[in-house]
Amino acid sequence: MINEIKITKRKKRNQAIAFWIFRLLSYSIVAILFIILSFIVYKGASVINWGFITKMPEEGMTKGGIYPAIIGTLCLVAGSMVFAFPVGVLAAIYMNEYVKDGIAKKIIKQMTNNLAGIPSIVFGLFGMSLFVNKLHFGDSILAGSLTLGLLALPVVIRTTEEALKAVDNTFRQASLGLGASKWQTTSKVVLPIAFPNIITGLILSIGRVSGETAPILFTVAAYFLPKLPTSIFDQAMALPYHLYVISTSGTNIEESRPIAYGTALVLIIIVLIANLLANGLRKYFGKKVKMN
Amino acid sequence: MLSSSITSLTVLLIVVFLFKEGIGLFNQKPVEPGYVIAINKNNKVKELSSVQLKNIYDQKITHWSEVGGTHDSIVLFQLEDISNYYSDEQIGDNMQNLGTCLSRLVDSLPNIIAFFPDKYLDKKFQGTLLEVDKVSLADFFAGKEWIPSAKPSAQLGVLPLILGTLWVSLGAILLALPLGLAAAVYMSEIANERVRRIMKPLIELLAGIPSVVYGFFGLVIIVPLIQKTFDLPVGETGLAGSIVLGIMALPTIITISEDAMRNTPRAMKEASLALGASRWQTIYKVIIPYSISGISAGAILGIGRAIGETMAVLMVTGNAAVIPHTILAPVRTIPATIAAELGETSNGGLHYKALFALGCILFLITLFINLTVEFISNRQKHNKN
Fold first, then answer.
1. Is the Cβ pair A208, B202 closer than 8 Å?
2. Which residues contact B130 (CB under 8 A, 6 or more apart)?
3. Which secondary structure element, helix H or strand E, spans residue A180, and what is its range?
4. Pick from B80, B123, B252, B310: CA 20 to 30 A from residue A29's CA?
5. Looking at the complex, does the CB of residue B210 fall below 8 Å from at least one CB of chain A?
6. Is residue B311 helix, strand or coil?
7. DSSP state string for B122-139
8. Which of B185, B279, B370 lies at the smallest CB-CB distance from A117?
9. How close, in Å, is residue A176 to chain B by CA atoms?
10. Roughly what angle, to the nearest 10 degrees, separates helices A257-291 and B193-208?
């Protein structure tokens, strides 16, 4: 009897210790995140003002703003989404609504997974050899957007597929039962219900694309270009590449540090907004769909 | 239909383009195009490998006997050295006599090895032009030096890069796995719903931070910290890379292993608890063994992410292409090499192709990792049925 109490006590003590260790380690991850964020916010906040985001870089990028880099990133994000979003959504619709389970579906799924796992620098190599050299786009927004678009494709396909899967089959059966065709069912019933989740995926992939550096190194990014791009065949500056060059290979690393902090903060803000927006939408629409 | 096959198409295109350029490397000679290497016609040596050439010009090989010739010391010659042998008048104002001078020089010195552009090669050149082997697979994979701009012969050994990549990634996973696993256990089994709902988006945010920002953070915080702590001349080390990559691999590990643990059937957990096991005993005797394949899938994907990561590593590891011996030395990874060097290569040249070959290696590694994960998760599904 006494022995049993002892064992129970030991069990409880072990559990308490283990749980505390786990809790501590988990909180330390959160702490790491907060250290990174607060450090960049702390250092970058004093740099960011209206001039910083609307002015050209000056004096070897040690002064002035990052306006062309912001515009460049916006162009790249828009360009890649124009390509990846329709293609990805169509692909997911086809996969989820039309293809029957079988070997073809398996292969396509596997390929999508493989594409998602390819490192971004390999996309850069590929984009350079296909778009820049083979198709003679040169270093241009077009080449960069297409490369980034390919990179974002698996993300868009996956989230859209998840969204479509989440639509209850009774909706489809009801629609088909009322005599609607397959396409009518998909476009009038399934898509509207899945739409909020699809948009969430779009926003998340925007967050990802805007921060990617390796794929644009050799397809679009300009080291220093104090003018705005005028066509899709122009080179452009981009935020992540700008941060990379001014923190490692700029002419005057020490003096351009404030600009680097500011650029990092702008990048983080973009990602934060994308994440918050996606989460907010998910919650908002989540409630709405349930009420129906 | 077309759009659904676009991912397959892209993967195929990537394979075609990468491998076309990458395999082209093995059709090329490591000596810069437009240059020749000549020796005296009486020299018995007919062939030199790329490594031998480099060692000769680095004066690590100083006697012909070491490469299969006579017991004489090697006389090195490069075009700049011509003024030691001939005066400006002899060469001529427009270098018009340079070819004849070179020919005579190679003929007169029995132990010379000369490296010069082939446009100065005389029509009646009195010497043997050395054959240099094409870049071989063995040179490429077992070569211990990566100096693509070395003269007269580029050194394209990827061993230091592969080891550097594995070294940094392994360090990263050793740091990230315990932390990530702890967080996954905590989030799926210990924490209440409210904490979980706060932590989940935070982990997602950690995954969303661009790699270049991680690199920047590593550069301004972790690198100086390491330099100070270990009293090093430079803080850009493999360890810095491992720490940054470890943080970046955390979300992958956490998300996937947490999913796996949550999939443990409730009946199993409750059976364990009903038999008098504590929650902690249930976790490490039931839940972790049950979800071990999911956890290993997470770990492998984490390694994959670390191996392919470019920018952050490029910024914090110091990029020295040497075989690493300690974690406190600069290392260079495959992706960082591609990113750092592709800008300075000429399109279609030897160096360019060598970087594409690196891209092929990277592609194959990540493909292997993806297929392994696929295999593991398929087996997991199979077991459940």
1. no
2. B36, B37, B38, B39, B45, B46, B47, B48, B113
3. none
4. B310
5. yes
6. helix
7. -TT--SEEPEEPPP-HHH
8. B370
9. 22
10. 130
Is residue B156 within 8 Å of B358, Cβ to Cβ? no
pLDDT higher for B107 or A10?
A: A10
Nearest-by-Cβ selection for A29 from B13, B250, B281: B250
* CB–CB contact B4 A108 (8 Å): yes
Taking the C-alpha atoms of residue A57 and residue A77, their distance in angstroms, rounded to an integer, is 21
Pick from A59-63, A241-245, B70-74: least confident: A59-63
Please judge whether B7 and A121 are an interchain contact, meaning their C-beta atoms are less than 8 angstroms apart. no
B224 touches chain A (CB under 8 A): no
Choice between B358 and A231, residue whose per-residue pLDDT is larger: B358
User: Predicted ipTM?
Assistant: 0.89
Q: Nearest CA to CA, how far is A108 from chain B (Å)?
A: 6
The fold of B159-384 is MetI-like fold (1.10.3720)
Asked if B359 lies within 8 A of A133 by C-beta distance, the reply is: no
Q: Which residues contact A44 (CB under 8 A, 6 or more apart)?
A: A261, A262, A263, A264, A265, A266
CATH class of B35-133: alpha beta
CATH architecture group of domain A51-291: Orthogonal Bundle (1.10)
Name the token pair of A10.
């030991």
Q: Structural domain boundaries of chain B?
A: 35-133, 159-384
Judged against a pLDDT cut of 70, whether residue A289 lies above it is answered with no
Q: Residue A64 forms beta bridges with which residues?
A: A57
Q: Please give the DSSP secondary-structure letter assigned to residue A138.
A: -
Kindly report whether the peptide bond that precedes residue A119 is cis, defined as omega within 30 degrees of 0: no
Name the closest residue on chain B to residue A89, using Cα atoms: B3
